[in-house]
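Database export, one record per block. Field names are fixed; values are copied verbatim from the stored entry.
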Amino acid sequence: MGGIQSFKDLKIWQLGMDIGADVYELTKKFPREELYGLTSQVRRSAVSIPANIAEGFRRYHPKEHKQFLSIAMGSAAELETELLLAERLKYISGDDLKTISSKLESLGRMLTTIIRRFK
């Protein structure tokens, strides 16, 4: 018995979880005054990615599944924008940004491939 039994078996969900964990580590270094500002927003965007992938997996209709994958794609773009701002504000290094951006690019390619299969 193999294959995908759960959203936890999806490589795209696993990558989303890795990105989320990376973001939580990075945001520990943000200034305390950002706790309810940028820190909170970045974390919510990061969590939204695997959460929407999982929710889409559990949806019965392909149209709903596609919609949740599209939301995950939007959350990834939002996260990248927030991280670009964090780098401008010197909250994260260029190397940290490059590492996460690379993962977000991979995730975006995977999402695009899956979303196109629904057309």
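Remark 1: Residues 9-117 form a domain with the de novo design (two linked rop proteins) fold (CATH 1.20.1440.60).
Remark 2: The chain has a mean pLDDT of 95.
End of record.
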